[in-house]
Automatic annotation (TrEMBL):
Residues 7-20 have a biased composition (Basic residues). GO terms for molecular function: metal ion binding; protein farnesyltransferase activity. SUPFAM superfamilies: Terpenoid cyclases/Protein prenyltransferases (SSF48239). Belongs to the protein prenyltransferase subunit beta family. Keywords: Metal-binding, Prenyltransferase, Repeat, Transferase, Zinc. Its cofactor is Zn(2+). Pfam families: Prenyltrans. GO terms for cellular component: protein farnesyltransferase complex. This is Terpenoid cyclases/protein prenyltransferase alpha-alpha toroid. Residues 21-37 have a biased composition (Low complexity). Residues 1-38 are annotated as: Disordered. Residues 123-479 form the Prenyltransferase alpha-alpha toroid domain. It comes from Massariosphaeria phaeospora. Transmembrane segments: none annotated.
Length: 499
């Protein structure tokens, strides 16, 4: 019977490179004899042997393993959980198969990237910058269905580029013009000209304008109309919908507060806000309790009460509470922190080192931010963070960099702006420290000023796996914008009288 030896076992003696799947005929398949002779290389244990059909991929011998590769292999073995649950389920099978695809990238260097002094691929800064810049250009017609996501495409690229250290001032005018066209006359932003406003598009638009900065960008925002638009989103139960008549979820709570805080808008609800008819008078009324109702039995936060806990929604919930006030006060008031920390800690996958977004799902580079970004917020409330930063840095550098630029969910996937932005943000969370400092003066005003009391506190001081060339810029832990950009925006609007 044809067998394939696991790459890990064969790595002990050789480096292997995956070859394209052969167009199989039994004549092309490796002989059973040749394969069975390789079995002798294997340590005892049937888990190292998989039965395969004749048409499965084969591996090519590309030489002896290096010292660095051996160190990676040993490391992976040391963090591999030795027990596997029985029986196999769809989830455990998907998990095992995904790891087999990821493993060569954690053990070796299939993309042949230059390595840093820790034997990991260097951050491919220029390639990623070129990828993100190309995402700011024209798109072929097949991208038409992405039209409503245009604000996101801009935000992901601009944020990714600034974190990579690129100057984005050349885009300022164009970005300002694009969003002037996407602004809806009654407030908020749609995906483009004439599109109905949506809170996700509004969030991405306001962040993009914050990133490019400058008077023209700031002044292009109709803050009074925005206040009215947000007033339409506020719901009688305390949450926010994403669009007029749209779904109410925790993204709305976060996006709404980001916009209120950055633009220094009044906290009182506009007179025409429907929630006023239900006795609510401010945007914060019942909000903490509503976020609290999104915490699930697992400890994480879901999109809306009764749904499954998920990393992206957990970030939205914690960031929303961290805008409402000092995390040390708002998080323990509304969240069961021990259960949250337990759930967050379990999202880090071993041996991959990256995060998944929910129980029994696969590691994915975007959660480097969605969960990685939760740690600074949770730490500001508890003083403790239970995450392995070097392991996440390893996943991002070794497994999430695409050969030709851009970053990915996992090896085998194509790069995109979303995964590029949030892997890079994750790398930033791994590398930099932030603390909430009550004594910081904030941006000035007392309205939603908690986000301005953060300060940077140097680099992560533990074991690092990155060199100076692999370090990315600091990002604001709540807004996910370049450090300093959000504050500048807020200060600009604080200096203005009224709208
Ligand atoms: C599941 O996808 C993904 C979600 C349920 C959440 C997506 C939400 C965001 C990215 C948050 C957006 C944030 C803002 C600020 C608007 P999946 O089932 O493909 O992935 P999985 O298997 O990793 O769960
Ligand atoms: Zn993802």
């Amino acid at each position: 019977m044809p067998v394939r030896v696991s790459l890990r076992a064969r790595h002990r003696n050789m480096r292997m490179k995956k070859m394209a799947a052969p167009k199989s005929s039994s004549a092309e398949a490796p002989s059973a004899e040749a394969l069975s002779s390789r079995l002798e290389e294997l340590p005892v244990g049937s888990d190292r042997i998989e039965e395969l059909s004749d048409t499965e991929n084969e591996y090519e011998d590309i030489g002896t393993i290096t010292q660095a590769e051996q160190a990676h292999i040993d490391y992976l073995e040391s963090v591999t959980i030795p027990i596997r649950d029985e029986p196999e389920t769809e989830s455990s099978k998907a998990q095992r198969e995904a790891f087999e695809d990821i493993r060569p990238f954690l053990e070796g260097n299939p993309n042949d990237f230059p390595l840093n002094i820790f034997g990991l691929p260097k951050l491919q800064r220029e390639k990623h910058a070129a990828f993100l810049k190309s995402a700011l250009g024209d798109y072929p017609s097949k991208f038409a269905p992405m039209d409503a996501a245009r604000p996101w495409l801009l935000y992901w690229s601009l944020q990714g580029l600034t974190a990579l250290g690129c100057d984005i001032s050349e885009y300022r005018e164009q970005v300002t013009h694009t969003f002037s066209m996407a602004a809806y006359p009654t407030g908020g932003y749609g995906g483009g000209y004439g599109q109905y406003p949506h809170l996700a598009a509004t969030y991405a638009a306001v962040l993009s304008l914050t990133i490019v900065g400058g008077t023209d960008a700031y002044e292009s925002i109709n803050r009074r109309a925005m206040w009215h638009f947000l007033g339409q989103m506020k719901q009688p139960d305390g949450g926010f919908t994403m669009a007029p008549g749209g779904e109410e979820d925790i993204r709305g709570a976060y996006c709404g507060l980001v916009v209120l805080s950055l633009l220094n808008l009044p906290l009182s609800l506009p007179p025409d806000a429907p929630a006023r008819k239900h006795g609510l008078t401010t945007f914060l009324d019942k909000l903490g309790a509503w976020v609290s109702s999104c915490q699930t039995f697992e400890g994480g936060l879901s999109a809306a009460p009764g749904n499954e806990a998920h990393g992206a929604y957990a970030f939205c919930g914690l960031a929303c509470l961290s805008i409402m006030g000092p995390p040390k006060a708002t998080l323990p008031k509304h969240i069961d922190l021990p259960r949250l920390i337990h759930w967050m800690s379990y999202r880090q996958c071993a041996p991959e080192g990256g995060y998944n977004g929910r129980t029994n799902k696969l590691v994915d580079g975007c959660y480097s931010h969605w969960i990685g970004g939760c740690w600074a917020l949770a730490e500001a409330a508890t003083g403790r963070a239970l995450w392995n930063r070097p392991a996440l840095g390893r996943y991002i550098l070794a497994a999430a960099q695409f050969e030709d630029g851009g970053l990915v969910d996992k090896p085998g996937k194509r790069p995109d702006g979303y995964h590029s932005c949030y892997n890079i943000a994750g790398l930033s969370h791994v590398q930099h420290n932030y603390v909430y400092d009550e004594a910081e003066s904030g941006a000035g005003s007392v309205l939603l000023d908690a986000p301005w009391r953060w300060k940077t506190q140097g680099r992560y001081q533990g074991d690092v796996l990155w060199g100076e060339d692999d370090v990315v810029g600091q990002v604001h832990p709540i807004f996910v914008t370049p450090w300093g950009a959000a504050e500048e925006c807020r200060k600009y609007f604080e200096a203005k009288e009224g709208f």
